[in-house]
Design goal:
With 227 residues, this protein is mostly helical. It contains 6 helices and 2 strands; from the N terminus they run βαααβααα. Strands 1-2 form a two-stranded parallel sheet.
Length: 227
Amino acid sequence: EGEGMQKVSWGDKIKFSEQDFNDAVSAYIEEHEGEVKSTVAAIIWGGFFIAVATGLFLYGEIRLVMVTRESDALTVADKSETEDFAKRKERRWTERLWLMGAGAALMFISLLVILLKVCALISDLLSTMRFEFEGCFSLVVLGSVAFTLIWGMFLAGLCWCCTRPYTAGVLLVLALLGDCAIDTEEEPSVFVWLVFSALVGYVWFTWGGQLVDEKPKRDPEQATLLP
């Protein structure tokens, strides 16, 4: 196995004519119809569960944003939080934590299954063309982690853009940088982005409040707007 095969990895430029490629794909589909259908089914089901994961994440995030805005309004109006409201806010934080974790786990697993099936199919197809695709498993795991984090940061940034704009901006910029890292098709670039994002996240959520105060200020003139 592997004798006479040209080793290739993700991002390598493979030179062959378009007609040869189309012929190889057509022949492969005819000979491996079951595997192709299985991969398509995995993509469809994976896409469905990714949508469910997105819904879970958004549900928890939006509900937390809403209760945070209520708390901000009380602060601006110089009114104290009631005991019931404080308990509700605490429940929303706990709820968001579980939904975020469940959504991220479901998205990661869905992406992992999709990419494993696609990667296996591509490897099998390339083998019929005398190419040996390397690094499939590491590519799939790294890609699943990166895509999950990028999508989570993007959604969180959108949800918080009107309530905590600086934090939302940091998340959206990190998501954009992550997308750029993936577009390079180089694993080191994705690793650098992961480390950079972890450092930025730690610094921002540890000391960001000292650099930029996003929390609302007391405004007695607004007190008449709330009962």
